[in-house]
Amino acid sequence: MNDDSLYHELALTLLPGIGPQLTRQLMSYGGSAKAVLTMPAGRLRRIPGVGDATIKILTGAEREKAFRKAEADMRKAEKENVEILFYTNKRFPSRLKLIPDAPAILYYQGTADLNAPKTVALVGTRKATEYGREQTERIVKGLVPHQPLVVSGLAYGIDIMAHRAALQEGLETVGVMATGLDIIYPAVHRKTAEKMREQGGLLTEFAFGTPPDRYNFPSRNRIIAGLSDGTVVVEAAIKGGALITAELALSYDRDVLAVPGNLGSTASEGCNALIKSNKAALYAEPLDLEQLLNWDAALHQSGKFKPVPTYSADDFTVEEFALITVLAAATGREMQMDELAWKAQLAIHAVASLLLSLEFRGVVRALPGKKFGLI
């Protein structure tokens, strides 16, 4: 990915009113961000979902403002060692690509692999109790043999406890932020955030300078849920961000576990309700998480873990790896070509040739009914 491509991709995402879904729609017709941003009004008007208001944004003063902001942000990113990942980048988290409301761009500062073989989110109330702290630390200790990437939201309470416990146990941990990377919120967590840059990372979809506006937090929660194989709710009130994250994880077909608490404890009402309604599995010991996420299948008889075979993004084109990612997430289920195209966000005519190429390389097998699966 050259600087010119990233410059136009970043500018496209900085335009007001051009959200992630419209960005993908424009890219599917234009082929590149540069083509979209230089496309004449007549061609833009033929793209479904694009009207006069959108055309004005893509061709007028807002575009020039986005270009200036993109140039400044790229300079800042280079200075502060921040990686800017457009959704077509091979290093963009493959798990996030599978959710329908995935962000179009991410800003990342850290050392952890966002496509780690195992990832788990720990979330909970900001008003955590001593019981919540103990359970968080116990859960993280139980994760150590698996060496997963621990994901949370850098917030007060369970979130920051999860990050600190992971750092203490030598696990990489990523904090998903509701601000720009240059604004640590809450500010009292700055020291922990600095450690996370060296043992994990900080991740956001928000541009530099974005303050902690209230409506940013639900958006942040969807990235936590989408980035993780499973979400563990440690303590949660009957309403709040942790329950939103759990519901989002369920909507993405990801597993959810909850730690039960005392009846009558407001800090555990949300967890108990998730378990009672069968929306979450009960977490009592590490085995509960291992079995639900199928992590126990990786055990040797010696008790040590062997790595799960994975395909490397470096060995494939962006489009090929998008198909592999979708098929891998299907956990053995074969998929039809139109479903593959939709989930990989690729044109169906392109998917046919890509699948043929992958079949020749011994990665994909074709089955009756135009179904495909990984070998």
UniProtKB/TrEMBL annotation:
**What's the name of its gene?**
dprA
User: Known Pfam families for this protein?
Assistant: DNA_processg_A, WHD_DprA
Query: Origin, by domain of life?
Result: Bacteria
| UniProt domain DprA winged helix: residue ranges | 326-370
Protein name in the entry: DNA-protecting protein DprA
Database matches in Gene3D superfamilies = 3.40.50.450, Winged helix-like DNA-binding domain superfamily/Winged helix DNA-binding domain
Every Smf/DprA SLOG domain range = 84-289
Which species does the entry assign this protein to? Hymenobacter jeongseonensis
Q: Which family does it belong to?
A: Belongs to the DprA/Smf family.
